[in-house]
Amino acid sequence: MSGIQPKIMIIMGSASDKVIAQKTIKVLDEMKIAYDLKVASAHRTHERVKHIVKTHSNIDVFIAIAGLAAHLPGVIASFTDKPVIAVPVDVKFDGLDALVSSVQMVKGVPIATMGVDRGDNAAWLACEILAVYDKSLQDKLVVKRESYNQKIENSQIELIEDIATDSYKFSTEIDEYSDEIKDVNIPKDVEVVVLVEEDTDNKLVDSLATKLNLLGLNYLLEKVSLTNPDLISAYMKSQESVKVYIAVSGLSTVLIGAVVAHTTKPVIGVPCSTKLNGLDSLLSAIQMPPGVPVATLGLDAVENAVIYAKKIIGK
Ligand code: RP5
What is the CA(154)–ligand 1 centre distance, in A? Predict the structure, then answer.
């Protein structure tokens, strides 16, 4: 990477996190994004973590990869205003220990956490953040997402050819569907679109709006119902001025999944505690498949979501 200024800093808590870091690197190489790579532990070499973060002020996004009591992303976030993305690593407890250590941050210090071992999604989210001010990168992400979608459509034909017997008359045609989208009014200069699942506690919605106003973000906040998916699609209509989406949802967080399915712009997901102390919504938001990252924040962490949106917008 000589001569090229890295935009992304990957920090691993240990060399044993190498396999997960390789997933991140593969995506960054594919998207031709320069990165730097360090090994530094929050608990064993705290001062080295601080030194790395403080001496790399040119970095746009930090990616922290760590297992066990994964405090590395939090320590990094305490030293920088730039967005931090955490990748919890499965060392014990299937990575649940690292996931919770990363995502449940204190107020004021938000981190976007990926699914366990999802080094690839950390790279995709980092690219989406960089693409907020890089139109050509944004276009590349759209092409990439379409190729993922096409792969699914192709696999339907291949699978049917592979498993269908003569006694079944499956069609190998792709079903025709229309993606006609309704019109909703999104003012021209909106930077943040906030979609809140309609059953969300009003106190959370009030805190969200208060923080958006306090940080001076130009936003549109709407309560939406999952029984009206067309309306959700309408709010996700591509609009140039929108830089970040925030989706707030409980239970199975279908709304958060729907929002990220519609865009390659950064999506911040806030899982809410409705049942099971919110564990269902936390895990549903965080454990996204490759290529569709949700910048998942802690349970009910609406204020941190706004701070993270501000970090992404950066101005
Ligand atoms: C974490 O502990 C590291 O990020 C790694 O995932 C895990 C084990 O580290 P080692 O004992 O292999 O150094 O801090």
Answer: 40
